[in-house]
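U., I forgot to send this yesterday:
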Amino acid sequence: MEELSYYEILEVAQGADKITIKKAYRKMAKQYHPDRNPDDQEAEHKFKLCNEAYQVLSDEQKRSVYDRYGKEGLQGAGGGGGRGGFSGFDDLGSIFEEMFGGGGSQGGRRSRADSDKYALDLGVEMTISFKEAVFGIEKDVDFRFKDACNTCKGTGAKNGKLTTCGQCGGKGQVYVRQGFMTFSQTCPVCHGEGMSAKEKCSDCHGDGFTQEKESVKIKVPAGIDSENRLRVSGKGNVGKNGHRGDLYVTFQVQADEHFIRNGNDIYLEVPVFFTQAALGETISIPSLTGELELELDIGTKDKQQFHFRDEGVSDVHGHGKGDLIAQVNLTYPKKIDDEQKALLEKLQNSFGIESKPHESMFESVFDEVKGWFK
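Result:
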């Protein structure tokens, strides 16, 4: 990524205006910020690069020098300091405060001391069978949720007493300048909280919450598929103010031995003996609701598909049903006896020249190849 230009790093055109550049930077800074990617060196590296790019492209003077002379021009243009050395610092600070909730109570922002230490929405996974997903079912979900500690009121501090961090001034972030670049880092003293506890709460051991068990019955709708989510309102984690988030159940559907699902369509591989395909027999095949009659064409081909409309899975949003697609898998005898061989030869001969299509197709080719060696 070092070889990319500043415009390429932020994924904007060279003629992009300040608003576009700022939006692109916000998006990438949030995506690669170290707090959201702990112990990810690659993300940290990309975060530093997008910081570097933004600090140049957000400053008209530096951008003009960069457009003409590249990074080398910036090294001789006072990029690391002096008048206008970093005009974008205040702007960057506001972006970080907006992203991570810093700034204490100034400007009407919510204090970090009032915020919860954890997300109120809670996610769990549930594995269900193919049949349960197709037809729907009621299931019990057992889970653990977080509840703000009553003793410390969710602060993690003894008697709920917190003090403003002297290192970051309550922002939870500190800014480190290197030349004309400025990087945001989680405050090493308060670990991003903006407030710190002199003593930990004895009940929650400084976590600010306790974990409780709960079970809730949910109705799994027919047609649910893997990675689909179901929201259970008011069953998530509980915050300091007593507000409870939502529970999100993400489903994983087990594979079936015979039916293969693709969206709302169901595929079924049907083994067919070569004589059945040649004769065009009618055979019974299983479906999601019972049996279906599959009428083979005379001379049915291997992998040929037959569609049965509305015999698939019900759409989870109520938009009709998918199809059942039966795909033929031709099978042949592994060995034949003398009597069977004689019968097959007799059958083949009864078709005459039709039974040897290769002869008429390759006759002219044989003559052409022979001419190559004269």
